[in-house]
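Quick one: structure for this chain?
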Amino acid sequence: MISKIFKGQSAKTRIALGLVSIVVCVSIAASFLGLFPDRYGAILAGRAVIAEIVAVNSSVFITRRDIRRMEANLNILVSRNEQILSAAVKPLKGKAAAIIGDHELQWKAMEKGTSTESQLVVPIWEGNTQWGNIELRFEPLKHPGLFAFFFEPLAQFIMFVSFFSFIFFKFYLGKMLKQLDPSQAIPGRVRSALDTMAEGLLVLDVKQNIVLANEAFSVLVGEKPEDLMGRSIAKFSWEQVMARNENESVSTNPEPKYPWEIALASSSLQMNHMLYLELDDNIRYTFMVNCSPVLGQNGKVAGMMVSFDDITKLEEKEIELRRSKEEAEMANRAKSDFLSNMSHEIRTPMNAILGFTEVLMRGHSNDPVESKRYLGTIASSGKHLLGLINDILDLSKVEAGKIEIETLPCPAHQIVQEVVKVMGVKAQEKGINLEFVAIDSMPELVLTDAGKIRQILTNLVGNSIKFTESGVVKLSTRYKSEKHKSRLIIEVSDTGIGMTQEQAEAVFKPFVQADSSITRRFGGTGLGLTISKRFAEALGGDITVTSEQGKGSCFIVNIEVEAVPQARLLSSTEVMQEITSNTAEQQVTWIFPDANILVVDDGDENRDLLEVVLSGAGLSIETAVNGQQAVSMATAGNFDLILMDVQMPIMDGYTAVRLMREKGISIPIIALTAHAMKGAESECLSAGYSGYMTKPIDIDKLLKYLANELGGKIATATTSLQQEAANTALMIEDSVSEKMIENTPLKAAIRSSLPGAKNKYRSLIGRFITRLDEQFSLIEQAAATANYEQLADLAHWLKGSAGSVGFHDFTEPAEALEAYAMQQDRVAVRAQIAEISDLISRLEVNDNIDTIEQEITESKANFVTEQTISASAPIRSSLLMSTPKLRPMVEKFVLRLDEKIRVMNTAVEQGDFVELADLAHWLKGSAGTIGFHDFTEPAIKLETSANEKDSINAINLLKTIKQMTKNIDLSSVSEKANMPEIVEYSTEKDKKSVGEVSE
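Got it. Here's what it folds into:
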């Protein structure tokens, strides 16, 4: 404690305090030896003399019996002596003969014959006989209380001398030390130069004491240069860098270890020694130290000059680089392990696919049964590959921390039933039982993410079935109601091969199975349990496992749920009841009064869909592509209602609706937007919108909303459209069944929820598929060039447009891609693009197989080049073929194309490659939009050649495009009117609304 106090003081202060301490000690010693005057003793002696005189005088008066004169003398004595507070004359027996002052109050009883420094008792004699006593009460000599010591004369003397001695000593030392300071021998300009050095500098004497410190070193250690003078350099906490290891301590080396010690011992220059310096506030510096001996007049070492170069930041960078290198090596090893696992997992099914395909192609199998078995192996291997890819994509989302939880009311017991029903097929194939038991009651609806729970249970039940050769897989549920959050507990137990404790602890790690023999025997990547555990954690729970090798395993899923308010509590028997399919619903058809509606959306598919649907409902439709155009049309036209997007180029919906309201337009304006985040609706309403609907567009909900605004009425009809769609689905199913082998699972196709049997919807879906190919190419290009802004816009288009034409499978991946693009998360973007690519490969139109193939062929026309163009090959518009009423639009494009080709010729002749690139870019987008997909590849190549200023290739490509223009054929198929007949509903029961027609 004392050392810390003095450590922060200057040398001058410490010396002054030392001298003062010496003076104090000498004064105390003198007092004990009696050399210091005893003031208390002198006062006590005087009081004793006064008491004796009073006693003698009083004895005379007592002998004479003159009590009154004795009392008068005592009064005079007390009044003249301030130190005497009171007095009394008391005989040995009886009352006091005389009392002077408040003696009875101030006198304190004492033992007989005793006196103190403030109370004296003196005997009075009458002849040779003691008559009584005189009691004298004096002022106390010592101050009462805790601070009595400071009123002692010796203490006051020491404090006085100490205070002024410290002031005089410090002043004197300040003058003298300047004369004794060795640094004063250094000229001022040299000292200033040393202080401007970035390196710390110390000058040491032969005893390793500091005689000079420059400003840089003082700043590093946080002390003034003069305070460092005279301090031993060993007082600092130094540590050698080379001695820092696990088995050696720097303190165990008896040899000179610091560079200044080595330099003093060897009289040699020491260079590039690395040292650590630990300061009191847990700050550590790293220095590169150099030492140079300073020789005296006799040639011997008289001191040492030590420089300290602060390399702390350099060492931190070095450590960071070393850590980064280690992390990179670990990541490289992890990547190698990943690639090794993936290579094995991919090659195994690929070997079966390619091998059996080669067998069938070479005709080695003439047995139909054997061929079906080969096809079954190919199909199951393909399904395994698809599952592997999906697991990797899920894991990439999990590892990137992009798990999105959608909490909605859902029947948890039905999810369990569905998993049991689906996975029961696999269990039957292996000859094992899959059982479901509800241990207690459960709410009919709970708030949670149904998709995540379904995936968790599918993974766990699938694992149990895979590793169980015989016996049973049992799934049981429990529901625990708690104060704030309830919990859903699902146990999946089996009688399979089981695991050891070590294997159970590692089973949730990616690519980990019990051991390598498990992988060889049962296959799999070891990703399912990892993904399931992360999903459970995201749902506020966890997955635990207990297992015994050879007896089976039990996985317990424990997640947070919340019962929907007023949801019915189902008994365990009701929970276990089998789910029955819903009966076919009837569709609501609306009859609208004459009304004119303005549709504003920058997405072609969205405008087309709304135009088809609303025109079919008997409404007049006009369209605009941005807010600026909408404001002009709304101001000039007479509309009954406006449907307007929010996010559009040139002018967004918020600005447009505000301008419309300012211009006095009071008709309903409904927001149609892909933004479904919290607060989006209130933002739209505050901007001036009358209502709010999210994309993908729910047609039934939209029609009902418009009916409320425009006064529409319900007309009932047997839903022939729904029946026709169902028949179409059956036709597809039957056709596919004839082409696929028995008991082989068909790869899940993605179909629009719009009724594809109708020409107007089918053409709309075909146009979307056509444009989707173009947009997806742009998505891949934007991802490859890291153009995240364009990528986010394209993803936003896909999020709204795909759902609008009934492809809802694209909505969530597109929304995720938009979010990742905004975050510029390259890894997650690649994963989402791969997922969208897989969805695109599974697109189908709701029609029979022949029609599907025809439409896909039309919408995905092969690219052509100048080498494949024939003078007789017709170029037709898929848009005109599907929608003949759009002929004026197509003819307008063809006329404009001739004009653009002439401008292209001029640009080539003048070498204006910028103009040529812009025109090629126009052709690439516009031709595809109109349905002339044959122009897409030549236009892309022409744009590339223009950007590369390749005039020869550009001329050849332009010739090809001219030839293709001559081959344009504007013939089309006739449009078929196939709308359902509208009749009146006969009963109130039939007036229920129906959602979109299912697949």
